[in-house]
């Protein structure tokens, strides 16, 4: 049975890359080793690399060489065809494909990009390749510029062409459809296309179709003078800055590119200032035409600015430059993470991914890799979106992570802080945060403030909290965010980027409280090691737990492990394995192990056991040959915080493992703490696991 899919279209600029990204992202949660193969590329490798091959390999960390991801260039195909060497073409494509198939679990094959002058020829090539590889096909139809009837007729013709060659078509996807034509096309597809073929319609999205400043710079062949750190700015509009300044300012729209002669210092300086002003929309960048570089005082001014827009110098005149810009066809580059994320979320929103998965993933994968784990987390969080509150809206990392979460449509978000300050920060950071999808709440001015104060007072009055204290405490973002969770107005909270652990979790301990039967709040990290995912606990909360607390930590960690799809095999770590060691510390672990066995006889647990015996099969077999855990432990419980915290950091630094967490466990509702040195990815991942916790 085939473990591959062929993705192709019938004409240029169909948005095929969006489907490919979506399909591979879907597979990443199910398949250990994925390969990507593009039989024919347009670029000459001696001049430049195929952007899409680089994007796919980089985005998904595929273990394949660039040279193995294609068989021919378009020019080579033409040469061999002209000599009648069709058999050689097919043989080489098959052998290149088989090489990838032999060493991977699944191969995604993407058809050619099409040159304008050879569309029909290339379509025949794609049919021929798919037939000879013997793999099913997903067809992409381009909708822009066509009526619903024309798209449906074209799709049916494409389907018949493949069907006549005995090539199985499992899905037809119409892309770039005008919003007002989506429903009509769905009905037409349902009437005209075979019922066994999956059908999807994706509307046009300017954020995917419009170019970035990087693409503009490449197209005009310009020199980047400033702003390379913002070169992925999206261009939605363009104007010629040849009019008087006041008229130029009135024509600014969101993400506008200004094309102006290089000697127009007034336009240059004004556009830089407009981009900083809250009264004008974001400017994407500028092109300075005619080879005219700004004079020294203007250059000096720009060099001294903290942030400068992408400014590109070209030799061509203004008219020729504008024409070139107008003809740019956008692509998705490996460095443009925003567009990659948007492509994947667009696929998931409009394509029945589960139905496609059922058709192409015809095997059950064994085990779970770190990559599969990460993709499954995101997929699971998306499946039942939860509402997470982020109290630290004054931290840049939080805002950047929030933008990623919203762009991928993973959770609903509330960010605490002053709206004006947050919006100013978003503009300064040059990120795209859709404020229509995010609640911004200032605790002090919130219409929920007085209700929250009353609730806090009632909950804590027996602990000597008076009304004035309650008012003061509720101005604190940690208390306000936790109260949102307590009242059910948010499903979880993530904080700690700028606050201490104590500051973050104190309110949760005061009124969210622990789950019934749980006496110890603890934490785990999901350690994504090169070949497995392990659960480390407790590495963040309890300094020197007792035997009873260690047992609590282990049981909670096992439940967390199971909840996140990892079979719990618990290793109670110590400096001694089995009965070989003596001492107070070893006895504490030994007693904790016995408590676990009494309370939860269903769990696989071993202890005391050394780290190497817990995770290395050879050492585990030698030291504890009859243990069901030794050598294959997935949940590792450390005897104290000093050991746990240092070990997780050592493993993270020395192996390059991704540490997701800490995730607090034992609370009635999820509240999770970040490290003050956290990265944007740490915040993103912690929000994702908090959302999954909230799902129960």
Description:
- With 696 residues, the chain is an alpha/beta fold.
- It has four domains: 206 residues, Rossmann fold; 114 residues, Udp-n-acetylmuramoylalanyl-d-glutamate--2,6- Diaminopimelate Ligase, Chain: A, domain 1, CATH 3.40.1390.20; 143 residues, 3-Layer(aba) Sandwich (Rossmann fold); 143 residues, 3-Layer(aba) Sandwich (Rossmann fold).
- Helix content is 46%, strand content 18%.
- The chain is built from 28 helices and 23 strands.
- A seven-stranded parallel sheet has the order 3-2-4-1-5-6-7, with helices on both faces.
- β14, α18 and β15 form a beta-alpha-beta unit.
- α4 crosses α5, α6 runs parallel beside α7 and α16 packs across α28.
- It is globular and about 80 Å long.
- The model has no long low-confidence stretch (mean pLDDT 88).
Key terms:
696 residues, alpha/beta, Rossmann fold, Udp-n-acetylmuramoylalanyl-d-glutamate--2,6- Diaminopimelate Ligase, Chain: A, domain 1, 7-stranded parallel beta sheet, 6-stranded mixed beta sheet, 28 helices, 23 strands, 46% helix, globular
CATH architecture of the largest domain: 3-Layer(aba) Sandwich
Strand coverage percent:
15-25%
- How many alpha or pi helices? 28
Q: Termini, distance in Å?
A: 37 Å
Shape: globular
Strand order of the largest sheet: 3-2-4-1-5-6-7
- How many runs of DSSP E, i.e. beta strands? 23
CA radius of gyration is 29 Å
Mean pLDDT: 88
Give the tally of structural domains.
Answer: 4
Class from secondary-structure proportions: alpha/beta
Helix fraction bin: 40-55%
The largest sheet, given as strand count, sense and whether it forms a barrel, is: 7 strands, parallel
CATH topology-level name of the largest domain: Rossmann fold
Poorly predicted regions are: none
CATH superfamily annotation of the largest domain: P-loop containing nucleotide triphosphate hydrolases
Q: What is the CATH C-level name of the largest domain?
A: Alpha Beta
């Amino acid at each position: 049975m085939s473990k591959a899919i062929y993705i192709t279209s019938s004409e240029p600029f169909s948005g095929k890359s969006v489907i490919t990204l979506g399909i591979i992202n879907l597979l990443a949660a199910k398949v250990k080793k994925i390969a990507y193969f593009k039989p024919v590329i347009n670029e000459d490798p001696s001049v430049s690399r195929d952007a899409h091959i680089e994007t796919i390999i980089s985005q998904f960390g595929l273990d394949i060489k660039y040279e193995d991801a294609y068989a021919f260039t378009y020019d080579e195909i033409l040469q061999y065809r002209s000599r009648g060497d069709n058999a050689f073409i097919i043989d080489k494509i098959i052998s290149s494909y088989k090489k990838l198939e032999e060493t991977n679990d699944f191969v995604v094959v993407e058809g050619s990009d099409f040159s304008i002058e050879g569309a029909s020829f290339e379509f025949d090539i794609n049919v021929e390749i798919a037939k000879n590889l013997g793999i099913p096909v997903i067809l992409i139809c381009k909708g822009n510029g066509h009526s619903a009837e024309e798209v449906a007729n074209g799709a049916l013709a494409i389907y018949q062409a493949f069907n006549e060659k005995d090539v199985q078509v499992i899905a037809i996807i119409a892309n770039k459809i005008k919003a007002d034509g989506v429903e009509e096309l769905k009905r037409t597809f349902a009437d005209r296309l075979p019922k066994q073929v999956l059908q999807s319609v994706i509307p046009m999205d300017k954020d995917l179709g419009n170019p970035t400043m990087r693409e503009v710079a490449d197209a005009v062949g310009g020199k980047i003078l400033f702003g390379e750190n913002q070169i992925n700015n999206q261009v939605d509009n363009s104007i010629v800055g040849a009019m008087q300044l006041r008229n130029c300012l009135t024509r600014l729209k969101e993400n506008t590119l200004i094309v102006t002669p290089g000697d127009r210092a007034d336009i240059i300086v004004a556009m830089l200032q407009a981009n900083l002003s809250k009264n004008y929309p974001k400017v994407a960048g500028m092109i300075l035409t005619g080879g005219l570089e700004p004079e020294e005082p203007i250059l000096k001014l720009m060099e001294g600015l903290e942030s400068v827009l992408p400014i590109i110098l070209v030799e061509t005149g203004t008219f020729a430059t504008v024409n070139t810009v107008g003809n740019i066809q956008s692509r998705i580059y490996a460095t443009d993470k925003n567009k990659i994320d948007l492509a994947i979320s667009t696929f998931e929103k409009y394509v029945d991914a589960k139905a496609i998965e059922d058709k192409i993933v015809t095997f059950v994968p064994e085990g779970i890799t770190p990559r599969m784990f990460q993709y499954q987390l995101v997929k699971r969080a998306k499946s039942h979106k939860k509402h997470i509150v982020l109290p630290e809206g004054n931290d840049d990392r939080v805002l950047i992570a929030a933008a990623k979460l919203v762009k991928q449509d993973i959770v609903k978000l509330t960010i605490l802080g002053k709206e004006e300050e947050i919006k100013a920060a978003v503009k300064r950071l040059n990120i795209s945060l859709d404020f229509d999808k995010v609640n911004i709440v200032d605790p002090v001015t919130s219409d929920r403030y007085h209700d929250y104060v009353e609730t806090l007072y009632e909950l804590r009055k027996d602990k000597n909290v008076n009304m004035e204290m309650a008012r003061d405490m509720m101005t604190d973002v940690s208390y306000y965010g936790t109260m949102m969770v307590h009242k059910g107005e948010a499903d979880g909270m993530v904080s700690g980027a700028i606050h201490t652990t104590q500051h973050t979790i104190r309110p949760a301990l005061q009124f969210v409280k622990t789950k019934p039967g749980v006496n110890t709040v603890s934490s785990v990290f999901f350690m994504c090691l090169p070949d497995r995912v392990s659960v480390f606990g407790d590495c963040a909360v309890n300094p020197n737990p007792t035997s009873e607390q260690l047992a609590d930590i282990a049981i909670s960690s096992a439940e967390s492990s199971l909840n996140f799809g990892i079979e719990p095999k618990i290793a109670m770590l110590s400096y001694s394995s089995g009965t070989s060691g003596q001492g107070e510390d070893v006895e504490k672990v030994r007693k904790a192990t016995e408590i676990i066995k009494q309370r939860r006889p269903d769990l696989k647990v071993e202890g005391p056991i050394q780290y190497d015996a817990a995770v290395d099969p050879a050492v585990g077999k030698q030291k504890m040959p009859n243990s069901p855990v030794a050598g294959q432990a997935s949940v590792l419980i450390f005897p104290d915080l000093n050991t746990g915290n240092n070990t997780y950091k050592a493993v993270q630094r020395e192996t390059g493992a991704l540490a997701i967490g800490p995730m607090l466990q034992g609370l009635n509702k999820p509240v999770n703490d970040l490290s003050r040195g956290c990265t944007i990815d740490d915040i993103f991942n912690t929000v994702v696991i908090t959302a999954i916790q909230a799902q129960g």
